Amino acid sequence: MKASVILAHPYQQSLNHAFFHRICATLCAKSVTVFGHDLYKENFNPLLTAEELEKKKSSDKLVIQYVGELLDSNVLFFIHPNWWGQPPAILTGYINRVIRAPYAFEFPPGDKGVGIPTGKLTDKYGVVINTSNTEKTREETVFNDPLEHIWMKCILEYCGISKHYRKTFRIVANSTLEERLQWLDEVEDIVVNSINCCDGGGV
Ligand SMILES: Cc1cc2nc3c(=O)[nH]c(=O)nc-3n(C[C@H](O)[C@H](O)[C@H](O)COP(=O)(O)O)c2cc1C
Q1: Dist CA 23 CA 38 (whole Å)
Q2: Closest listed residue to residue 124, CA positions, set 70, 172, 87, 178
Q3: pLDDT tens digits, one per residue of 20-42
Q4: What is the number of other CB atoms lying within 10 angstroms of the CB of residue 152?
Q5: Are 80 and 91 in contact (CB under 8 A)?
Q6: Pocket residues for ligand 1 (CB within 6 Å)?
Q7: What interhelical angle do 61-72 and 89-98 show, nearest 10?
Q8: Is the pLDDT of residue 121 over 90?
Q9: Which residue's CA lies nearest to atom 7 of ligand 1?
Q10: CA nearest 171: which of 136, 201, 121, 146?
Q11: How does pLDDT run across 148-185, given as a tens digit for each residue?
Q12: Is the pTM of this model over 0.90?
C-alpha cells in the first residue's frame, strides 16, 4: 500500500506539522510506503502558468514527481489549517498543478470542459485533516463550512474519490497540551481506519 501525505503550513512547530509527522510515522509503522511532502519546506511553486495551462504535462520536476506519486497512491492525506475558509495558497497551487486533467479527471472527447468529467482517481481513499479556531456550529451555520464543499464535492468527488473522510480539530487557539496530545492519538486512529478502508474494510 502507498500513501501521499501533503502538508501545507509554514510553521515547523505547528500542530499541523505534528499531525503530519504522526501520520507519516503511523503509516510507516504499518509498512505503508509514504510519499510525504511539506510543501513549504520543499519550496513548491504554487503558480500555474499560462504555458503549463496549455500543456498536458508540466516540465516542473516537483510537479511531475507529485503527479506520479498521487496516481501511485492508494490513500491521499491532505493536512492544513483553515485560512479564510480555504486551504493555504501553496496547497491551492498544488491542487491546480497536480490534481489536474488529464491525470485526475478528463472530459469526454469533444467536450470543451462544460459537461461532467470522468474522475480518474476512483481507486483512492481521501483523508483531509484541518485545524480551525472557529466553533463547529458557527462554522457550519454562519460560514457553511466551505472546506467541506471544497474538498469533498469540488475536489475529491469531482475526481472520482467517493470514499473519503474529513476531520477538523478545533479550537486550536484555546487548546491545552492534553487536548493536542489526544488529537494526535485521534489522528493515528484515522490513519489506521483509512488503511483498513483501503484493505476492503470500512471507516
Ligand atoms: C491567514 C489566516 C487565515 C485564517 N482564517 C481562519 C478562518 O477562516 N477560520 C478559522 O477558524 N481560523 C482561521 N485562521 C486560524 C487558523 O486556522 C489557526 O491558526 C490554525 O488552524 C491553527 O493551527 P496551527 O497551530 O497548526 O497553526 C486563520 C489563520 C491565518 C493565519
Answers
A1: 13
A2: 70
A3: 999 999 999 999 999 999 999 99
A4: 19
A5: yes
A6: 9, 14-16, 81-85, 131-134, 172
A7: 70
A8: yes
A9: 84
A10: 136
A11: 999 999 999 999 999 999 999 999 999 999 999 999 99
A12: yes
